[in-house]
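__Protein archive entry__

___
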Amino acid sequence: MFGSIINRIREKLNEEQLLQFFQRIDKLTLNQKPLFGKMNVHQMVCHCADFFRMANGIKLAEEYGKVDPEEIKSLARSGKTAPAPKGFGQIEGGGTKPTEFEKDKLILKDFIMEFSRLPEDYNFAVHPYFGEMDRKRWVGLAVYHLNHHLEQFSA
């Protein structure tokens, strides 16, 4: 599983991936229950949008470098859920608050589209666990994160 994550890090978010993500997001409904984790589907949509807010520095974590990146990678390899960076946890109250479900889905799709159009040399924000990352690593993490949470709700 983690090997495929590494391969995705070298990819770009292309039109086919965008279309697939948008179709999966469009299929989400408020009554969907998670296969794992504590977030409801609306919280998950806002959590995923927060990922992109983090990448471009709109939303900052409350602490950096406090979690060992190897611990996060180990959790991912074993299929376990990694903790959200402090200030991003929906259950803990740090994430962006859900408003209207369909509107929040559109906001997520807008962030994904904007992210996909960023130039190769875009100066991304520092990740709270992984530090400085280039575009390829941010794209890989975005693909992994979106897949993880859409699969959480069978989308």
Remarks:
- Confidence is low (pLDDT under 50) at residues 1-10.
